[in-house]
Specification:
By secondary structure, the protein is α/β, with parallel strands linked by helices. The protein is about 40% helix and about 20% strand. The strands form two sheets. Strands 1, 2, 3, 4, 5, 6, 8, 10 and 11 form a nine-stranded mixed beta sheet that branches.
Length: about 300
């Protein structure tokens, strides 16, 4: 029987050797006082031999997958071997600073009703990222379409980009880039994360299932974690990402709210983009229009 530890930190690598190397180093530097283990799952990378990680960081546990299982599948390989009472999933492109892991772990221990939590993620230039979010709801699309949020402060209601992420809040879903969960919440999901989505929207699905199991999902700004997510403002980059997200998001909304609800939701999204004066909104509206025209698929 495996001896339990307080925390298992799991990092999934897929052809991000340089980022992953820095991520692992930051975790080890800022968790050496914890009863923790660090597990690296290599998702069939072909960039470099993953054994190089083990040579550089002998204390880590390396799991090599023969196929790319996606973010959820890769994390589940690590979870199957994890001994932690709590589990922290980290994107390979994050840098841990100071004692953020310790503070997050203390928050989880002090709040057994919380199944999953995340903390403040920032770009390298210090701007915050919209980590705490609401599930896709028509009422929020209508509020934004009618610009009600410009007249009334609804930041803690709508969350996402409207929320300054300076204070703790109970969220519907949080980003999977820094995703700490309890073993109890994981067991309520059958001991593994849902793998319905290979990439994008998987963290929404995880949080939905965790909340259905009766746990809370919390955002708690206990420190800053640098996240090197793409900062490109190029129109084509935003469009390409949206095209990858939409099929999974439509599937999630259809499964949780019904197909009629999902269809109306995307028509409102299209109208919102069509009426927006923000840069790139015309291209975004075209993607929504194509998605609707093709029967909500690409």
């Amino acid at each position: 029987m495996k001896k339990a530890v307080d925390l298992s930190v799991i990092v999934v690598n897929y052809n991000t050797f340089d980022y992953t190397e820095k991520c692992l180093q930051s975790v080890l530097e800022h968790s050496n006082e914890l009863d923790a283990e660090l597990i690296l799952v290599d998702n069939a990378s072909n960039e470099k031999d993953p054994a190089a990680f083990k040579r550089q960081f002998p204390s880590i546990r390396l799991i090599e997958s023969k196929v790319n299982l996606g973010y959820a599948g890769g994390n589940n390989l690590g979870i199957a071997e994890a001994r932690g009472r709590y589990i922290l999933l980290l994107n390979s492109d994050v840098l841990i600073q100071n004692n953020v892991i310790q503070k997050a772990l203390r928050f989880m221990k002090d709040h057994p009703e919380t199944g999953a939590m995340s903390t403040r993620l920032i770009y390298p230039d210090g701007r915050h990222q919209p980590v705490a979010n609401r599930f896709p709801f028509i009422k929020f699309e209508i509020l934004e379409l009618l610009r009600v949020h410009k007249l009334v402060n609804l930041s803690r209601v709508m969350l996402g980009p409207f929320f300054d992420h300076e204070k703790a809040v109970r969220a519907d879903w949080i980003w999977g880039a820094f995703f700490m969960m309890s073993r109890n919440a994981l067991q309520a999901l059958g001991g593994k994360l849902p793998e319905e989505y290979f990439m994008y929207v998987e963290d929404v699905q995880w949080c939905y299932q965790i909340k259905k199991a009766g746990f809370r999902v919390d955002y708690y700004p206990c420190g800053d974690v640098i996240h090197y997510v793409s900062q490109s403002d190029e129109e084509n980059s935003a469009v390409e990402k949206l095209r990858k997200i939409l099929p999974n998001e439509f599937s999630f909304i259809s499964g949780s709210r019904g197909r009629h609800y999902a269809r109306l939701f995307y028509r409102l999204r299209w109208a919102k983009a069509k009426l927006s004066r923000e840069p790139g909104s015309r291209a975004i509206a075209s993607v929504y229009s194509e998605f609707i025209r093709k029967g909500y698929r690409f």
